[in-house]
Write a structure and sequence with these properties.
Blueprint: E1 2-3, H1 17-24, H2 39-54, H3 61-80, E2 88-89, E3 95-98, H4 104-119, H5 123-139, H6 143-156
């Protein structure tokens, strides 16, 4: 069994050739993070696009609005799910890989931290952030609703 303690994109120590062969048979490895393997990376790229659109030289809040709207594609289904995959099994139902996923709250905070830091002067960006919060609230369960309340308060104080 291989226990994955590092998230996608984290640096890990070198492995033996035997361990590498076993690992390659179970997962896809590459030199760089990809949005297909790492939703956190995809969201980080969207935040970077949004922030660049809000830069004084660009001053295009519609780019930030589009980035917020696109982030909902990943965040809403993730927010609605109760549990992430905790193990991958082989054909004999034996645990072979234990992944480590970022908490959904962490991913949502990544999006809101970047956009609220630089988009507070743009009402259209704040409206898009409120729309995203509303979409998340529609599917929120349990403590996740409380987390959205904290983000809503931050939005109200921008």
């Amino acid at each position: 069994m291989l226990r994955v303690a590092a998230r996608v994109g984290a640096h890990v120590r070198p492995l033996s050739e035997k361990d590498l062969d076993r690992l390659r048979s179970m997962v896809t490895l590459g030199a760089a993070r990809t949005p297909f393997q790492d939703v956190g990376f995809a969201l980080q790229q969207l935040v970077e696009i949004a922030v660049r659109g809000l830069a004084s030289g660009t001053n295009d809040p519609y780019t930030a609005v589009s980035a917020l709207d696109l982030s909902a594609t990943a965040l809403v289904p993730l927010w609605a799910e109760r549990q992430a995959i905790t193990a991958y099994l082989d054909e004999d139902a034996l645990v072979r890989v234990l992944p480590h996923w970022p908490a959904p709250e962490q991913l949502i905070d990544t999006v809101f931290d970047g956009v609220l830091t630089y988009g507070g002067e743009h009402p259209i960006v704040l409206d898009a952030a409120r729309r995203l919060l509303a979409r998340l609230a529609d599917v929120a369960q349990g403590s996740r609703a409380g987390h959205l309340g904290e983000l809503s308060q931050r939005l109200d104080h921008v």
